[in-house]
Each structure stands twice: as structure tokens, then as C-alpha cells.
Design a protein that fits this description.
This protein is α+β, with helices and mostly antiparallel strands. The protein has helices at 9-16, 22-29, 60-67, 74-81, 118-124, 130-133, 176-191, 206-212, 214-236, 240-249, 262-271, and strands at 88-92, 95-96, 99-100, 104-108, 113-115, 140-145, 149-158, 161-164. A 3-stranded antiparallel β-sheet has the order 1-4-5. Residues 255-260 and 273-297 have low confidence and may be disordered.
Length: 297
């Protein structure tokens, strides 16, 4: 079973919104809220004290270039090196009425000047055009943020639009099943605007979030089921039609999350077979109600 992880927010956005342009991708990142440590006394959409909210993912197109790990163009460095004094670019993240805005920019040198938009910045300092700073021709790569770490799943680019890779990374320190299910759970948290879950140690509250959001629990179970169906299709060399038929015929079950490995194990046993037949999953078990003040996990 996976867990919510702030490092998986960028791939989770592509999971929810395949085919984003780089501008749309930066706009979706700008909607994320990461605040105080996760607290079970707050509502799921409450990220805590606005003054303590983290500026993660609000750096616009420049932060997106870093997240996608795009190489900076050597020509850009060369052009800057020809200047007598290389001005420093500062990306200013800011909120207005508690809503994150598009970043402003400040160029610091012999004199400091501020710019309200990227267009204004590039007009006066063309060397800071993102097309000059980053190599946007890269067709694939992985995710990394200087704030929250890396996700080993890869992204793909087709016709200037970004997608989550259909296949797990070939070389990975973590289990691909866990990475994929974590991306799905993180995507469901974004969809539900469960910003409270993105606080410090929010992963410890993943199961409580799934219990409170049955749709997210179903999406998680379906993700694991698709994963093991895909693995079976690899070993049995099934056709695409056979794979799609298996997905349609097999029911998705919600299983209580009392054991982190139980859901994956039961679904794997339901999918895995050597005779070409689908073993039905056991019937779903109802989650018992809990008292108002009882914290189940």
C-alpha cells in the first residue's frame, strides 16, 4: 500500500490531468497548499496557519523546469558570462487574499528592479526567457524538487504536452507498486483538496483519509488491481483485448485497511492465476462505525 507524499504531487497532477502544457502544469502546481503538520483535529481542507504555509510549487515556470530536471542551456551561461556584471534573478512567491498568485520577479545587480510578470521580465532581460534558460526539448525524465525530494516515476512529453509515463522506472530503489499507488492516493488527496494531509508526517494519516473518502479508497484499490493485471499480462503475454477484458470482468473491492499489505495481497491473489481464469475476490467487508472522538489509526 502506498502513502500520501508531497514529493509525488507533480506526477499526481499529471495523473489527474494528462496532456498539460508547461504553462498549464505550472498553474496546477500553483493551486497546491502545504502548511502546518497534519492534525486530526483539523478538517481535511484546512492547511493550518496561513502565515506558516510553505511556498512549495509556487515558483512558476522556473520551478517547473527544476522539477522536471531540465538541463540549463550552456549558451545561456555563456551569454551571461559576457556581461560585466551578471544580475541575479529572484523568483518572488506571494499570496493575495490568502490565494497564491503568479510569481513576481526581481533582478538584483547594481540596481534592483522588480517585474510583475514574466513578460515584463523577459522584455527587459531577454536572457531570462525560460526557453533560453532550460532545454525544453527533453522528451522524458523524472521528477525532483529541492523542497520535497524526488519521485522515481517518469514523465513523457509529446507535442509539447506532458504525461505520466505508462511504465514503471526500470531502475528504482523503491517498489514500483508502492510508487504507483502512492501517486494515485496523492492524486485523490489533491482532488479532494485534502491539504491537511500534505503537512509534516501526513503519510501517517493516509488510512484515515481513505476511510473518510470512499471514492479515494475505491480508486486506490482499482490502481492496485490494474497494477497486478498489468504484471500478469506481462508474464502471460496477453493481447491488449485480453487485458481490457480482464479489467472489465474483475470487480473492484474495498477492503478494510487494518493491514497495510492486506489490500495488495488480496488483490494480487485475485488477479494472479496460472490457468487463465480469474479468481473472484472475496466480498467487501464493511468498515465498522467509530465514536466521534475516536481516532482509528
Amino acid at each position: 500500500m502506498g502513502n500520501v507524499n508531497t514529493a509525488y504531487i507533480p506526477p499526481a497532477i499529471l495523473y489527474l490531468n494528462p496532456g498539460l502544457t508547461r504553462e498549464e502544469f505550472a498553474q496546477e502546481l500553483n493551486k497546491i497548499r502545504v502548511g502546518d503538520p497534519t492534525d486530526h483535529h483539523r478538517e481535511w481542507n484546512d492547511f493550518g496557519d496561513p502565515k506558516k504555509e510553505k511556498p512549495y510549487f509556487h515558483g512558476g515556470i522556473f520551478e517547473l523546469g527544476d522539477i522536471l530536471q531540465l538541463h540549463q542551456r550552456e549558451r545561456w551561461f555563456y551569454e551571461c558570462a559576457q556581461e560585466e556584471e551578471v544580475p541575479a534573478l529572484v523568483v518572488v512567491r506571494y499570496k493575495k487574499r490568502n490565494i497564491w498568485q503568479e510569481p513576481r520577479y526581481r533582478v538584483e545587480g547594481r540596481r534592483t528592479r522588480s517585474y510583475p510578470s514574466l513578460a515584463n521580465l523577459v522584455k527587459e532581460h531577454p536572457q531570462y526567457n525560460p526557453d533560453k534558460v532550460f532545454d525544453w526539448s527533453k522528451s522524458s525524465g523524472s521528477f525532483h524538487s529541492i523542497f520535497v525530494g524526488e519521485c522515481e516515476w517518469e514523465w513523457k512529453k509529446r507535442e509539447d504536452r506532458y504525461f505520466l509515463s505508462e511504465y514503471p522506472p526500470i531502475k528504482s530503489r523503491a517498489q514500483p507498486e508502492g510508487i504507483y499507488s502512492s501517486i494515485v492516493i496523492t492524486a485523490e488527496a489533491i482532488k479532494a483538496q485534502a491539504w491537511n494531509l500534505f503537512g509534516w508526517e501526513g503519510y501517517n494519516h493516509t488510512r484515515r483519509f481513505l476511510v473518510d473518502h470512499p471514492d479515494a479508497q475505491t480508486a486506490h484499490a482499482k490502481a492496485l488491481q490494474n497494477w497486478w493485471i498489468w504484471k500478469l499480462a506481462q508474464t502471460t503475454r496477453r493481447t491488449n483485448n485480453g487485458l481490457l477484458r480482464m479489467r472489465l470482468e474483475m470487480p473492484v473491492q474495498n477492503i478494510p485497511l487494518t493491514d497495510q499489505s492486506a489490500l495488495s495481497r488480496v488483490i494480487r491473489e485475485g488477479v494472479d492465476n496460472h490457468n487463465g481464469y480469474i479468481r473472484p475476490l472475496p466480498p467487501p467487508m464493511a468498515i465498522p462505525p467509530r465514536p466521534n472522538n475516536e481516532i482509528p489509526f
